[in-house]
# Entry
Amino acid sequence: MRASLAAILFWISAAAIAADAGEVKVVHGRAYLERAGERLALRVGMPVREADRVVTGPDGTVGITFADNSLLSIGPNSDFAIERYVFDSTTHAGQFDSRLTQGTLAGVSGKIVKQSPEAMRVHTPSAIMGVRGTDFVVRVGDAKH
Amino acid sequence: MAVLAVAAFMALALLTANPGPPVETFVVLPSADGHTGAVVVQRGENRQLLNEPYATSRSTDSQVRHLSAFQVSHAYAPALRALPARPASFLLYFVTGTDELTDESRRQLEKVLAELRARPLPDVLVIGHTDTMGDALANDELSAQRAERVKGFLIGIGIPGERIRIAGRGERELLVPTADEVDEPRNRRVEINVR
# Structure
């Protein structure tokens, strides 16, 4: 009990120091954040940042708004990671690399892509998608359509 | 016998659980404003440009296909439903030299507040501006007062103060460029950015 409280306090202070890439705005069902070997139940209001991984259960979905106004949502049974997130709020220059290993992802590009097309990329096991200012969906596995 | 049964079960589990690499699907959607942008899917040496609504690249097809809007909304429903509200921005206008809203903006305010209330965890940036009437320094102060006034409205509907950042830009960022000492209603404004 004490250990988990300490972990939470550490996590809160660490989040305040590290540059946040975005904020969790929507959570339904079981959804977890994996950071530095720890697994936390995702809640609305949590900050996310580079190297974070989001894992969802069969009923889990998560929506995240990023600093550059990119939006991403992760569907059920998914494994998603933020590999690189850099955004300069003055120049709008940046780089956003994420990885979908399993499941579904929906997205809306933001200011990074307006400034430099294809600076937002979604990696999958066998491909890389570069985004040039649009809405999109991606699925890895179990394609019904 | 039992060992054989377990081995057979495991072989079956392996076969059904491992049907080769997962299929990967990428689809471009029309955005909320109806415009469709593009994505580029790079798979090894192969590069596919998707730039029409519902254009689809799939790891098992060499050709670009098109799904229907219905297929996409059905197959991706849980993820699409979880997309956060799109960032939005609103303008409210003020009576000259004051932090009082114009009658029209007073009516508009209710709509804006309703939109903000619908967001579960709004993150707000309020920026006040003035026209070029009067002293630049006084305008800095007036623009900050206007932003502060709007922040008060937002706190009034329950948005926590720590989620609202405010700034006063004085007469530095005119919406309608004018000379100094010009009474321009469209420059007397507060910009509310929410996400």
